[in-house]
Design brief:
The chain has 526 residues and is mainly beta. It has 3 domains: 105 residues, Jelly Rolls; 182 residues, Sandwich (Jelly Rolls); 185 residues, Exo-inulinase, domain 1 (Jelly Rolls). The strands form 6 sheets. Strands 10, 11, 12, 14, 19, 20, 21 and 23 form an 8-stranded antiparallel beta sheet that branches. Strands 13-22-15-16-17-18 form a 6-stranded antiparallel beta sheet, with no helix packed on it. The longest helix is centred in the first third of the chain and has 11 residues.
Length: 526
């Protein structure tokens, strides 16, 4: 889980360890099998499909029709087996548009969020496998971002209870659609669900149709809506019956035009599919699949609600009503990770009991009766190129599932040095190790019979210049690493049991000292 197979791994820190273990090479590139799956299948928004990959079927193809400038997301999630999916998207001409192996360092699920399509045509999503992994996957195509935050078809009474305000004719359900009416002489009607979530990065799409033939009407989407004592703040994307579109920012002081009324042929219709994509301070606006334009603004940076708008002019004598339907909202997924806490609130306490209590509360670990080991300080030093391993437990103290924590400091004049913790250590040919180094990186490795079967390295902002608090969570074939309270890696490894120890990795002829303070072990129930 969360592999980081880096072609250029921190060579100076690991090359000597590889020599110690006599392991021949540990890099691995990503290679998609080009084998054709038996029959191509089409993808539809919000309708997941499933497939199975193995040695006989190393890849499968799925297709969908896309528009130029359309923004979509694709997510391949493992359902069974040890499958590590890889996705590749090719355009109508067969060229690769994008590819992904892991969404982030904590998962092996693959995904692409908010991918802009370059041209109109048929696209192919190839789902392959990393290495020899196999199993079933689920593939989902969504507009905008990858996580569905809301879907309203306005077909049920439940939708009416959420959207319709009792005693008001501003909004009403009408034949499975939401009817929003702006009253004469400058009325503006806003429709927002009572259970709306606050969202920042968001994609909103809705179908809209004029109800009748008003002399003039404006309709659109509002987003990042925030209620203040002085009124509402919001961004407003509007189109009108004159075939124009505009963007406003409204706050308690008034309205600010971000995009003045602009003509576009995509708006020559009485039926609209309106959409907004908001990413940080960058916004894109669509109608009927066509990109109308983009703009940047950072004045409303906080998450807010999303809704619809209908308006008429101040001197207009008649009202305007719009029927809205098929509203869907997607927002940034970020990760498919579901497991150990991504951050530990108890870390600063330095209390193993508090840390164990927080992890146990997540439901991901079952602690043993009590902490089993505590060593106040261990020192390792070197003056030349050497890897030093030292046990802090007797040969009879074997740990399989456990927490191992320590504060690790590096004092050196070199740049290719590291200090780490050993776990499930049988001998120098069979061990697990985590380390931090002077480059600001961390590693997680496992050797079996001198073969590095797990080899993860990444630079991380969580690695501090001073002491670094490391925590290993080992459970069967899963090992996780926290650095200074943040979960930075989680891997599938070979299970087992062994001693606990410390390591110094010195790959220069320099003086290096590794100091390990408050080393503790807390067994887990298997």
């Amino acid at each position: 889980m969360g592999k980081t197979r880096v072609p250029v791994i921190r060579h100076a820190v690991l090359v000597a360890l590889v020599g110690v273990l006599a392991a021949p090479g540990w890099g691995s590139g990503i290679g998609l099998s080009r084998a054709q799956a038996p029959g191509e299948s089409s993808l539809v928004f919000f309708e997941p499909v499933r497939g199975t990959l193995n040695a006989g079927t190393p890849a499968q193809d799925w297709t969908f029709d896309g528009l130029a400038d359309q923004v979509i997301s694709i997510l391949a999630v493992t359902v069974s087996g040890d499958l590590d999916p890889v996705i590749e998207v090719t355009g109508p001409d067969g060229s690769t548009i994008a590819q992904n192996d892991d969404l982030d360092s904590l998962v092996t699920d693959a995904g692409l969020e908010a991918l802009a399509l370059p041209v109109t045509g048929t696209y192919t999503v190839r789902v392959g496998r990393f290495g020899e992994t196999s199993g079933e996957y689920e593939l989902t195509l969504t507009p905008g971002f990858a996580r569905l935050a809301r879907l309203d078809t306005f077909d049920s009474d439940e939708a009416g209870a959420i959207w319709v305000q009792p005693g008001s004719d501003v909004t009403a359900l009408d034949g499975g659609r939401l009817r929003v009416r702006a009253v004469p002489t400058g009325g503006v009607a806003l429709a927002m669900p009572s259970d709306a979530k606050l969202l920042r990065d968001v994609y909103v799409q809705v179908q809209a149709q004029l109800d009748g033939e008003p002399s003039y009407a404006e309709l659109g989407l509002i987003f990042r809506v925030e209620a203040t004592p002085g009124g509402l703040r919001s961004y407003q994307f509007r189109v009108n019956t004159g075939g124009e579109w505009s963007v406003l920012l409204e706050d308690e002081t008034g309205e600010f035009v971000l995009k003045s009324w602009t003509r576009d042929r995509a708006l020559d219709t009485s039926r609209f599919t309106l959409a907004v994509l908001a990413r940080s301070s960058e916004f894109a606006f669509y109608c009927n699949g066509a990109l109308l334009g983009t703009l940047s603004d950072d004045r409303l940076a906080a998450p807010g609600r999303v809704g619809m708008l209908v308006a008429v002019t101040r001197n207009q004598a008649d009202s305007a009503a719009v029927l809205f339907d098929d509203l869907h909202i997607t927002t940034r997924l970020g990760t498919t990770y579901r497991g150990l806490p991504l951050a530990l609130a108890s870390w600063d306490s330095g209390d193993p009991g508090a840390i164990m209590e927080e992890l146990a509360a997540s439901g991901q670990v079952t602690p043993g009766a009590a902490r089993d080991l505590f060593v106040p300080e261990v020192l390792l030093g070197a003056t030349d190129r050497v890897s030093k391993f030292e046990s802090i437990t007797g040969d009879r103290a074997q740990y399989g599932d456990f927490l191992l924590g320590a504060s690790v400091s590096i004092i050196t004049t070199g740049t290719s040095t590291g200090c780490g913790l050993l776990y499930r250590w049988v001998d120098e040919r069979n061990l697990g190790m985590v380390f931090v180094d002077e480059a600001g990186g961390f590693g997680l490795v496992q050797a079996v019979d001198a073969d590095l079967i797990t080899n993860v390295y990444a630079l991380s902002g969580m690695v501090a210049e001073g002491p670094n608090d490391l925590l290993i969570v080992a459970q069967g074939e899963r090992v996780a690493l926290y650095i200074n309270g943040a979960l930075v890696a989680q891997e599938i490894v070979g299970p087992g049991a062994g001693r606990v120890g410390v390591a110094l990795l010195n790959y220069e002829d320099v003086n290096t000292d590794c100091t390990f303070r408050d080393v503790w072990v807390w067994p887990l129930e298997e």
